[in-house]
């Protein structure tokens, strides 16, 4: 992948206008499709398979006038007046008539109707007009909502001074989030951090431009999607928040790498390609982790949350693609100006400080102490000044035990409020006090009790009853006995007397945990009522749906947490080839998450700093805050972990090489030194990235929507804690405690885990070996110190299939490799890129292995003759397609007749290639040279070189290790 990104970075750098115009055109087209759907978001919540949803579906079928969304108009008299006297009674009667005339209103409950109770307050100072609509909140037209507000305004003007009128209810329980100028402050802070980091006004804009284009495209696509799926109004805001944060950070990593390289003297075009191939690989890894975590939101089984996760994942995916393509294109506009203040243009060709992997990859061949996939460094060039070690990491690593205890205790204290974190769906009580829906909510709670804002409904089929009215009266009496029920406002059958409806007013608010307990108690009572009255009642309504969603989300947290932590362990094992580093990273992530939960609970539950953050009402936070925070923070935490610890690993392996290739008695000192040097090299960019992330998320807190506020605060705190306390304090302390044991991994696990080129190792190795074995080499096959080893399994340890092989074959020549059958087959598979070399340098057909293995496998013919039933056809298949390099394994297996046929095939293949000015090159393996030489003589191939493969013949290797 890194080599592909390297080529992509070079192409986009060379064609900046094409790339920029293409993205702008794509953005324009997407906006054109999105504009007609800008109002298409949906705040209705449903959760299939729950009792509340089943109850709503029953009402839809048999009691439609009670199944839709509702609203209520609250009227409070002036001091000393009574609501049941004029002018209030007359004005309320006129208002009821006006409301009945509005489109979509199917029922209006007059508070003075003798058939209903609870619509007039006990002190006669307030009344509620309740409205029922056809369909859910998203089905109510804007014209109807405007009509409701106009009726409320007219009533307000009619009533005496000092009276209050407010329109609220379920229809207005959620607000549509909107951007404000405060969010722009986060972007300005990000710009300031970028200017300080890059010391350049021009370059500082690049990550912002990249992120804004990506966010614009993502939001446009989300609004287009509203034409096909239900998308909540919170989704675009979450996508903006994430898209901005990761878009800026991903571009920052690429630009920072590019700037360092240009300052070191690398030509800008080459540097842009390298930065895209190296830092771009880390960007892809970071993006993949965020994507997996966001898509994992589907664990909860809630459609709107799954849609939200997919939409946010789309925003992150676009941010990755834009960063990888538009960022190097923007660098193409800057050329040498990217160096920034105080850095003049460097001499062409000056090597990059640290050469991070280049020379180190060369040194792999003969150093048996270096692991197969270790990343090693070359010594710093003589012209490069020695970096001063960061003072912070020196302090942390000198006192690792104290530091570890202090950080864990601090985060533990921060996490304590999380025990009181309550979850609920948003309601009007969380809206700003200036909102009419919030005023209606507060007036209702004040005069009718908090439960009047979230009535519950019990419904069931009563078709078998011979006395439906008496049955409903009996059920009402039973339900009123349940603790937590303030009153039963309505208990009635429908017009056909086949379905009953009971409207219950709780004593507590909709988002109060006691209301959730009441729902559970009513559901526990339902079987008893069914036994006694023969009616299967279901608890439903807007409040019950919200409680079911919160319960489902709470139940999903543990499996989602196991998924995320397990994923982090596997991914980091793949990246770092270590056991302890992933465990430490996962535990650090859990500490960050719990600390973030604790701060959110302290602010939104306990009220600490609530006024400062413009939190209008304390109480439960939005239900999906924890699962979203866990998913997003996971990806971002792994990003910082990889960026910091990968450099520590590189420095450690280089130091170990310099000490003789083994973790000797000074292994611990080498490991601690690598922690310090790796931290020093990475801290600047990680700090900048974390500050930008924090600024973007924190900007959504002061004036953000009530649904976004706790998510934004949790992400801001989580990022700050994870970056500065966990990754930049706890990580180096724990790494210092572990010493060289931090990089231990069992060989069996090393063998089965795949390899991920997280820092563009393939690019750096190709660059370092670009002139190997010599500039413009003509060699078709060339190797130096090539070895292939494998785990023998059990206690047998490692087996050497072949070791320290040096060879070369020119166009038209033949290379014979002889040895025992295991070594011969392993060598053939290695040249044909079916096995990866463990050590050494190997170039086949101009391509380095194993980095270019896919190309070699597609262009090199391979004939495995030793175990083939039809050996001549196997050779014929290898020679088809006019491959100019063919590997023939097990030539000893050919008998005399087969050898004649094989020689004829080789002559024909050589002649066919010669007709197109190509030459056939062969690599032949076998037990001895004689069979190979006989075949080559018959095939008229005089140009032959031979090598003898050296292997550990005393051990037995499983066949699978050397099988194709």
The CATH architecture of the largest domain:
Up-down Bundle
The secondary structure category is alpha/beta
Low-confidence stretches: 345-386, 953-964
Task: Please state roughly what percent of the residues sit in beta strands, choosing from under 5%, 5-15%, 15-25%, 25-35%, 35-45% or over 45%.
Answer: 5-15%
Transmembrane segments: 20-39, 178-198, 205-231, 237-256, 277-302, 308-331, 401-425, 556-576, 588-609, 621-640, 681-701, 713-738
Subcellular location: Cell membrane
Keywords: Cell membrane, Membrane, Transmembrane, Transmembrane helix
GO molecular function, one term: transmembrane transporter activity
Q: Strands, helices and their partners?
A:
Layout: H1 2-14, H2 16-34, H3 51-62, E1 70-76, H4 88-100, E2 105-109, E3 126-133, H5 142-158, E4 164-168, H6 181-198, H7 201-225, H8 234-263, H9 268-295, H10 303-334, H11 358-362, H12 391-398, H13 400-415, E5 423-424, H14 436-448, E6 456-461, H15 468-480, E7 485-493, E8 499-506, H16 513-533, E9 538-540, H17 542-576, H18 580-604, E10 621-622, H19 625-658, H20 667-698, H21 708-738, H22 747-752, H23 761-768, E11 781-791, E12 798-809, E13 814-818, H24 821-831, E14 839-844, E15 847-848, H25 853-859, E16 861-864, H26 871-879, E17 885-889, H27 896-915, E18 921-926, H28 929-938, E19 944-948
Parallel strand pairs: 5-10, 13-18, 13-19, 16-17, 17-18
Antiparallel strand pairs: 1-3, 1-4, 2-3, 6-8, 6-9, 7-8, 11-12, 11-14, 14-15
Helix pairs in contact: 1-9, 1-10, 2-7, 2-10, 4-5, 6-7, 6-8, 6-20, 7-8, 7-10, 8-9, 8-10, 8-20, 9-10, 9-19, 12-21, 13-18, 13-21, 17-18, 17-19, 18-19, 18-21, 19-20, 19-21, 20-21, 26-27, 27-28
């Amino acid at each position: 992948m890194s080599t592909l990104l390297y080529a992509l970075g070079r192409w986009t750098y060379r064609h900046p206008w094409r790339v920029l115009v293409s993205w702008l055109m794509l953005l324009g087209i997407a906006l054109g499709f999105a504009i007609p759907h800008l109002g298409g978001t949906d705040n209705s919540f449903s959760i299939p398979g729950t009792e509340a949803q089943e109850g709503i579906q029953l009402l839809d079928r048999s009691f439609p006038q009670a199944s839709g969304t509702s609203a209520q108009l609250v009227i409070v008299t002036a001091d000393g007046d009574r609501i049941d006297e004029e002018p209030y009674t007359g004005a309320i009667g006129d208002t009821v008539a006006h409301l009945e005339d509005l489109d979509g209103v199917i029922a209006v409950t007059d508070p003075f109707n003798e058939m209903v109770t609870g619509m007039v307050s006990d002190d006669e100072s307030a009344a509620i007009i309740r409205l029922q609509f056809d369909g859910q909140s998203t089905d109510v037209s804007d014209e109807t909502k405007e009509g409701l507000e106009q009726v409320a305004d007219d009533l307000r003007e009619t009533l005496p001074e000092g009276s209050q009128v407010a329109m609220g209810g379920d229809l207005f329980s959620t607000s549509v989030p909107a951007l404000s100028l405060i969010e722009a402050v986060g972007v300005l802070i990000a710009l300031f951090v970028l200017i300080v980091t890059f010391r350049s006004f021009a370059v500082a804009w690049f990550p912002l431009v990249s992120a804004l284009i990506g966010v614009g495209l993502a939001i446009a696509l989300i609004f287009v999607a509203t034409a096909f799926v239900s998308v909540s109004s919170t989704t675009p805001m979450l996508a903006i928040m994430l898209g901005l944060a990761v878009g800026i950070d991903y571009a920052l990593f690429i630009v920072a790498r590019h700037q360092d390289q240009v300052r070191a003297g690398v030509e800008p075009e080459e540097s842009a390609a390298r930065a895209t191939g190296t830092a771009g690989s880390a960007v892809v890894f970071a993006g993949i982790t965020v994507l997996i975590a966001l898509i994992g939101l589907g664990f909860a089984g809630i459609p709107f949350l799954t849609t939200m996760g997919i939409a946010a994942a789309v925003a992150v995916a676009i941010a990755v693609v834009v960063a990888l393509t538009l960022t190097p294109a923007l660098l193409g506009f800057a050329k040498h100006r990217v160096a920034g203040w105080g850095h003049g243009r460097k001499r062409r060709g000056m090597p990059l400080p640290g050469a991070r992997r280049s020379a180190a990859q060369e040194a792999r061949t003969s150093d048996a102490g270096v692991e197969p996939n270790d990343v090693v460094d070359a010594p710093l060039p003589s012209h490069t000044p020695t970096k001063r070690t960061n003072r912070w990491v020196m302090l942390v690593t000198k006192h690792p035990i104290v530091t570890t205890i202090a950080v864990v205790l601090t985060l533990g204290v921060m996490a304590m409020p999380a025990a009181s974190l309550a979850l609920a769906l948003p309601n009007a009580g969380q809206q700003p006090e200036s909102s009419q829906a919030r005023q209606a909510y507060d007036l209702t709670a004040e005069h009718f009790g908090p439960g009047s804002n979230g009535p519950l409904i019990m419904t069931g089929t009563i078709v078998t009853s011979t006395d439906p009215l008496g049955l409903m009266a009996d059920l009402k009496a039973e339900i009123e006995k349940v603790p937590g029920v303030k009153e039963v406002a309505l208990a009635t059958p429908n017009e056909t007397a086949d379905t009953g409806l009971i409207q219950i007013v709780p004593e507590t608010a909709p988002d109060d945990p006691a209301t959730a307990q009441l729902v559970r108690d009513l559901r526990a009572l339902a079987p008893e009522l069914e036994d006694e009255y023969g009616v299967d009642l279901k608890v439903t309504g807007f409040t019950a749906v919200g409680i079911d969603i919160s319960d489902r989300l709470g139940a999903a947290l543990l499996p989602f947490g196991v998924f995320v932590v397990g994923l982090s362990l596997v991914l980091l094992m793949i990246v770092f080839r270590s056991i302890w580093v992933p465990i430490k990273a996962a535990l650090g992530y859990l500490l960050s998450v719990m600390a973030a939960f604790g701060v959110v609970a302290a602010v939104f539950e306990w009220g600490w700093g609530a006024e400062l953050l413009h939190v209008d009402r304390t109480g439960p936070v939005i239900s999906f805050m924890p699962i979203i925070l866990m998913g997003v923070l996971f990806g971002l935490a792994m990003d910082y972990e990889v960026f910091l610890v990968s450099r520590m690993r590189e420095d450690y392996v280089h130091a170990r090489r310099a000490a003789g290739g083994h973790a000797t008695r000074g292994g611990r000192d080498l490991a601690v030194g690598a922690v310090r040097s790796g931290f020093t090299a990475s801290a600047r960019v990680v700090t900048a990235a974390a500050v930008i992330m924090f600024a973007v998320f924190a900007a959504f807190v002061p004036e953000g929507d009530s649904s976004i506020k706790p998510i934004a605060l949790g992400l801001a705190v989580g990022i700050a804690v994870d970056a500065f306390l966990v990754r930049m304090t706890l990580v180096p302390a724990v790494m210092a405690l572990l010493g060289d044991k931090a990089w231990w991994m069992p060989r069996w696990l090393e063998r089965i885990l795949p390899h991920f080129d997280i820092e563009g190792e393939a690019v750096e190795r190709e660059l370092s070996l670009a002139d190997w074995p010599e500039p413009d080499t003509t060699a078709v096959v060339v190797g130096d110190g090539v070895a292939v080893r494998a785990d023998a399994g059990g206690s047998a340890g490692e087996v050497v299939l072949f070791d320290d092989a040096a060879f070369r074959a020119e166009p038209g020549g033949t290379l014979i490799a002889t040895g025992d059958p295991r070594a011969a087959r392993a060598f053939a598979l290695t040249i044909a890129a079916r096995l990866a070399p463990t050590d050494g340098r190997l170039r086949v057909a101009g391509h380095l292995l194993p980095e270019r293995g896919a190309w070699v496998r597609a262009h090199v013919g391979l004939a495995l003759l030793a175990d083939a039933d039809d050996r001549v056809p196997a050779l014929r298949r290898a020679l088809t397609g006019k491959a100019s390099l063919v590997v023939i394994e097990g030539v000893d297996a050919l008998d005399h007749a087969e050898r004649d046929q094989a020689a004829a095939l080789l002559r024909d293949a050589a002649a066919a290639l010669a007709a197109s000015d190509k030459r056939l090159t062969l690599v032949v393996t076998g037990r001895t040279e004689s069979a190979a030489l006989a075949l080559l003589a018959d095939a008229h191939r005089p140009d032959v070189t031979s090598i003898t493969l050296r292997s550990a013949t005393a051990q037995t290797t499983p066949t699978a290790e050397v099988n194709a």
